[in-house]
Write a structure and sequence with these properties.
heterodimer, A: about 400 residues, alpha+beta, Butyryl-CoA Dehydrogenase, subunit A, domain 3, 3 domains, 13 helices, about 45% helix, globular, B: alpha+beta, Butyryl-Coa Dehydrogenase, subunit A, domain 1, Butyryl-CoA Dehydrogenase, subunit A, domain 2, two-stranded antiparallel ribbon, 9 helices, 9 strands, binds flavin-adenine dinucleotide
Chain lengths: ~400, ~375
């Protein structure tokens, strides 16, 4: 069932490019660029920023209409943090000129983004971060000099831009002295060094910021309002990881189900029970995500997103564990201890298993999310912590 | 795989209905938390009209949809109120509604008035996926004589209208027995005293046939599946009760000079309970919605919701008991009633394992249920 207005938009878009055969001749970047210009990128964005002020729910309809018209599907992981969490943050917190400058190439994947949040001394306690920013004018332009270290920064080695959290005011309590910037990763003061992961590849990095510099025009939100900005990003991150709402048997569980059906010789009663159990848990989580999506559409999102992220980690990790064990021969093998770049769906089941172990750590650990639910939903008494108004510089570390 | 998109949220009207039921029940259950055990309409009054909610308007009922029946069951579950709602007003009523014969329609009119209570005479664990029950043999034509013993029938002790699946010349028939005086009902000492089970004995009991063959099978299947889905909603109410009651207790009990709710192990356990209740709410909404709007999805949706909620309700209430310490094990605290209900519910209208098997068969991941003649 295609919405006629959306179908018309999509048809006009294809016609404007000279018809579907001409579209098929274009590169992915060209097609995506044209979609952005036509307002068919993030449809709920304002005109000129990749959208047409559409309803958030139009997005899925537009994607479906594009596929139906024969437009090649883009790689959803071309710029995962850019499109998933950073652009929504910028849309909400930064001036229009900055958005105009950055959005299109983030959408097309010409410029990759990374999220410079975690530090060696600040992981779960992200608001305790210490990467320093001090005002400094360079070449007559107002800006900030940055010194510090980030860690576990996914894609930093390939990134053009980073969303950077800094400590601008150490004399204030930790949540109140943070300022956020968009930093150019391709400058002398920024050094990204890939870190090898348990899977063998290196998608994350440690990043050294050594007298790096950002113009004040690339500040996101007000000075010292960085925690507020960060919460927007974290919420989108949890929704992006936990709150996806694909079809039944999308993703890893689909791989598991397919492999199981194709290999009846592996079926034992005990393993059958584990496979069915994993399938049910994933499907329940999927339907619960669908409900969260419907709540969000109604403007009633709660902390269900955090719950969804916890559940996603649990059920996905279980599915990966089962997948890695249904064929005992495969349990003993691995495909490649170097390469990490191809999509995880093409990788062996042992890779999926290892990669899934990060699901309960990345994007906020399961423990931290449970604590958040205990505080904000259940309103339980707070855990012991140092006084909230302690200046950041006086916190023991 | 293509999947339907069902509306999983509540409308304003539905919220109003929920609020009405919750208010009506909360007052009475708070006033007498231990009271009314054994009462089919525990903590409710006739003016709530529970008996007629599922009955069509043309038969003097209210004709509510399945979503609405679910939210009523949820609010009743929260207080462990009106245990006969599921057995009489939902399951037996749905079985009767599946029969076109006049005696069935007359019986529904009687139920809608609220003066009577019905029961489906099948063992509590009977699932919609099973073969038609053969414990009762029928003889005769239109007027039947029934013979047989049916064990562990939930709600039979309250009933004066009995809907009996029976076999007549090897073929399925649904029979209606009017009046408790014709039936031997022995209420058993039951795990769930708020919804006890009974052994029903029929010896040359006079009955009328209200459906035969495919109509009888379909009426029974629909009743059991509706029961399974509505029972999920009952569990959601019980789980939310456990989450809230536990949070409240953790916020008032001191040990080691601190509120125990500030200990992380307990905070996290309570948060997990909340997450499970949230998931249970979603998967139950999906099952109820499928009953209303998507018959093709109904078997899968019911199987999923029953398998998930049956297991999680037990675990959630067990956890609530653990987090209450000694008081949670005391008879004076209401927790044990919830624990017993959750455990008993986990086998009603199909055990959680049966529903798991059903999902396994529907997805082609596991062999179909073993019993001969079973449908998924
Ligand atoms: C694959 C991967 C990709 C990542 N990508 C990025 C990225 O792109 N950008 C970025 O900024 N970061 C990234 N991270 C970092 C990630 O956000 C952090 O690892 C995470 O927030 C945890 O911080 P930590 O590693 O310092 O662990 P810690 O905070 O030291 O935690 C150690 C353990 O203690 C627990 N813990 C800590 N505090 C508490 C508490 N108060 N109560 C209970 N338990 C507690 C944690 O749950 C954990 O189990 C990535 C991580 C992974 C694994």
């Amino acid at each position: 069932m295609t919405d006629p207005i959306i179908a018309e938009r999509v048809n006009a878009f294809v016609a404007g490019l000279g018809g579907i055969d001409a579209v098929r001749e274009l590169s992915q970047v060209e097609i995506l660029g044209a979609r952005y210009d036509a307002g068919l990128a993030w449809v709920h964005h304002p005109e000129g920023l990749g959208g047409y002020d559409g309803d958030q729910t139009d997005q899925a309809l537009v994607e479906a209409a594009l596929i139906e018209a024969g437009v090649p599907e883009p790689d959803p992981f071309r710029n995962p943090l850019g499109t998933g969490t950073i652009i929504p943050t910028l849309l909400q917190h930064s001036p229009r000129e900055l958005c105009e400058q950055l959005f299109k190439r983030a959408w097309t994947g010409e410029e990759i983004w990374c999220q410079l949040f975690s530090e060696p001394g600040a992981g779960s306690d992200l608001a305790g971060l210490g990467c320093r920013a001090v005002p400094e004018t360079r070449n007559g332009v107002e800006g900030w000099r940055v010194n510090g270290q980030k860690v576990w920064t996914s894609y930093a080695h390939r990134a053009k831009w980073g969303l950077l959290l800094t400590r601008s005011h150490p004399e204030l309590p930790k949540n109140q002295g943070i300022t956020v910037f968009v930093i150019d990763m391709e400058q002398d003061g920024v050094d990204a060094r890939p870190l090898r992961q348990a899977t063998g590849g290196a998608e994350f990095n440690e990043v050294f910021l050594n007298d790096a510099w950002v113009p004040d025009s690339q500040r996101v939100g007000e000075v010292c309002d960085g925690w507020n900005v960060t919460r927007t990003t974290l919420m989108h991150e949890r929704m992006a990881i936990g709150g996806r709402s694909d079809g039944r048997e999308a993703g890893r569980i689909g791989v598991l189900a397919k492999r199981w059906r194709e290999n009846p010789d592996l079926h034992t009663p005990a393993m059958t029970d584990r496979v069915v159990g994993a399938w049910i848990d994933v499907e329940v989580a999927r339907i619960a995500n669908e409900r969260i999506r419907q709540l969000a559409k109604r403007g009633q999102p709660g902390l269900e997103g955090s719950g969804a992220k916890v559940v996603f980690a649990d059920v996905n990790q279980n599915a990966a564990r089962v997948l890695a064990r249904i064929d005992p021969t495969q349990t003993l093998l691995f495909d490649d201890w170097q390469d990490e770049l191809q999509s995880s769906e093409l990788r062996c089941s042992s890779f999926s298993y290892l990669r899934s172990r990060a699901n309960s750590i990345e994007g906020g650990t399961t423990e931290i999310l449970l604590s958040q639910i205990a505080d904000r939903v259940l309103k339980l008494p707070r855990e012991y912590s140092i006084a909230r108004d302690t200046p950041w510089k006086d916190i023991p570390r | 795989m293509k999947t339907p998109e069902l509306d999983l949220l509540e409308s304003a009207d539905q919220t109003e209905l929920r609020t009405t039921v919750r208010k009506a029940v909360a007052h009475r259950s708070a006033a007498d938390p231990e009271g009314g055990v054994g009462d089919p309409w525990r903590f409710t009054t006739a003016d709530l009209g529970l008996a007629g909610l599922a009955i069509a308007e043309e038969l003097d009922g209210v004709g509510l949809g399945v979503r609405e029946l679910g939210l009523v069951a949820e609010e009743l579950g929260r207080a462990l109120a009106a245990p006969a709602f599921v057995t009489s007003a939902v399951v037996a009523t749905r079985a009767l509604a599946g029969c076109a014969a006049d005696p069935a329609r007359d019986a529904l009119r009687g139920l809608a008035e609220g003066a009577r209570t019905a029961v489906l005479v099948a063992p509590g664990p009977t699932a919609a996926t099973e073969e038609y029950p053969a414990a009762v043999q029928a003889t005769g034509e239109q007027e039947l004589a029934l013979n047989g013993v049916v064990e562990v029938v939930p709600g039979a002790g309250w009933a004066d209208l009995f809907v009996v699946p029976a076999v007549l010349d090897g073929r399925p028939v649904l029979a209606l027995v009017d009046g408790a005086e014709h039936v031997g009902v022995e209420v058993e000492v039951s795990m769930d005293q708020t919804r006890p089970v009974a052994t029903v004995t029929l010896s040359d009991t006079a009955a009328v046939a209200i459906a035969r063959d495919a109509e009888a099978e379909e009426a029974l299947r629909a009743a059991l599946d509706l029961g399974a889905a509505v029972l999920c909603a009952e569990r959601v109410g019980m789980m939310e009760w456990a989450v809230a009651t536990t949070a409240e207790y953790l916020g008032q009990r001191y040990q080691f000079g601190q509120l125990i709710g500030s200990y992380q192990a307990l905070r996290h356990a309570n948060a997990r309970m909340w997450i499970d209740a949230t998931q249970a709410r979603a998967i139950t909404a999906h099952a109820l919605a499928a009953h209303d709007d998507d018959p093709a999805e109904l078997p899968m949706a019911t199987g999923l919701a029953a398998a998930y909620t049956a297991q999680r309700a037990v675990l959630t209430i067990e956890q609530a008991q653990q987090l209450h310490g000694g008081i949670g094990f005391a008879w004076e605290h209401p927790l044990h009633w919830y624990l017993k209900r959750a455990m008993a519910d986990s086998v009603l209208f199909g055990t959680d394992e049966q529903h798991r098997n059903r999902v396994g068969a529907l997805t082609d991941l596991a062999p179909a249920p073993i019993r001969a003649g079973a449908t998924i």
